[in-house]
Fold this sequence. Notes:
The protein has 249 residues and is of the alpha/beta class. It is 44% helix and 14% strand. The chain is built from nine helices and six strands; from the N terminus they run αβααβαβαβααββαα. A six-stranded parallel sheet has the order 3-4-2-1-5-6, sandwiched between helices. The protein is globular and about 60 Å long. One 3-methylbut-3-enyl trihydrogen diphosphate binds next to helix 2.
Amino acid sequence: xxxxxxxxxxxxxxxxxxxxxxxxxxxxxxxxxxxxxxxxxxxxxxxxxxxxxxxxxxxxxxxxxxxxxxxxxxxxxxxxxxxxxxxxxxxxxxxxxxxxxxxxxxxxxxxxxxxxxxxxxxxxxxxxxxxxxxxxxxxxxxxxxxxxxxxxxxxxxxxxxxxxxxxxxxxxxxxxxxxxxxxxxxxxxxxxxxxxxxxxxxxxxxxxxxxxxxxxxxxxxxxxxxxxxxxxxxxxxxxxxxxxxxxxx
Length: 249
Ligand code: IPE
Ligand code: IPE
Ligand code: MG
């Protein structure tokens, strides 16, 4: 039986977040320029979206470009920007027909105008779709997001400083880019790096973390199913004891 067939269809995570890492090393291994690695990475992203759709995952967040990635050489940043806009525009033609919705999180104001408008068009066109939601983290930094949330709360409470005692975790989360999106149950990082790199720090408080040595362009259906299978064999305790979890089943 394939791994896919062994998955418990009743326990598919509703939200999977992915740090798609290793494009550069994939290209270097083949003696190719880094941008070819990114092009292969874009294909792997498309494949991951299709698998997520098939498995019935409701939200998939793909970390495509971090705020820190602006510090890469100009040629790589420009190459990545044109790859992003062309692949999102092309791939979403079919995806929109398949009821997929696109959202982005991150500091859009830093994007080149054409990239921003191309992506905004796809977001608008797909806004009423009700199937899988694909969230692209683009020019995204989690600390930046948290500081912005703090700023907007400060502005809100400056009129009524005493109300701040009532501020809840939910009020805070409502000021993040992800206010309308449930927290990911599973976070995958490829390429054998064991770090979070400023991704969804608030939202992954209780996510299961899955790391694999596989480089992102090689992350295929089998690899995706392995991550889900592994997730399904974890016990999520949320601070409770194992006995409590078993008793509540
Ligand atoms: C991930 O691959 C894609 C982006 C960060 C844009 P990398 O480009 O980081 O690949 P490595 O880590 O150098 O192999
Ligand atoms: C994280 O990858 C960002 C994305 C995958 C877009 P990096 O390759 O930029 O991460 P670090 O800098 O090695 O931690
Ligand atoms: Mg990397």
